[in-house]
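Dear colleagues,

As part of the handover before I leave the project, I'm documenting each prediction I ran so the next person doesn't have to rerun anything. This entry is a single chain, and its sequence is reproduced below.
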Amino acid sequence: MPFLIGLLGLIAVAYLWMSRVRHAAEMTNELANMAGDVLAAARRLGFRRRTNIHPVESIEDTVIGIGALAQAFIELGGLPTEEQQNRLITSLQAHTGKSLQEAEETLILGRWIIAQCNGPEPAIDRLLRRLVRLDRTGSFEPLMAVLNDVAKAGRTGEISDKQMDALTEIARQYKVR
């Protein structure tokens, strides 16, 4: 009898261990697919990450910076709704002249850049500095148009305190009075 109980316990432990291994393999596969999406989007948009340099400093296209900054701006107000995401895509298309696929890929890359910055607040600071260095005059108008469209699509139609702070920082960096 004790032998049978020990055998059943061993089988239960083996089953639990195998299910954990299977779950870990599924998660690894999902992460690999996500990384593949980011790499494919980066390749199609011409983004090349340079070694020993933060990804934000590798941005050479203002549209990528605008998309990532707008995505971070939305996330400052909480989890983005589907309506906000859709509005961001259409606004990015309208104000930057990109196709639907390019706008979606810009946002995929933007989410990855935000993750590399450890969240939306530090991402906004870094992306804003980079955009100002790239093109102070040419990037301001499309950026503000996209942020305006996204803010209107918010849950309440109003912006949060963090989003207001981000707009203040944008005005300061672009030297707008």
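Residues 68 and 94 are 16 Å apart (CA to CA). The chain has six helices and no strands.

All the best with the project,
I.
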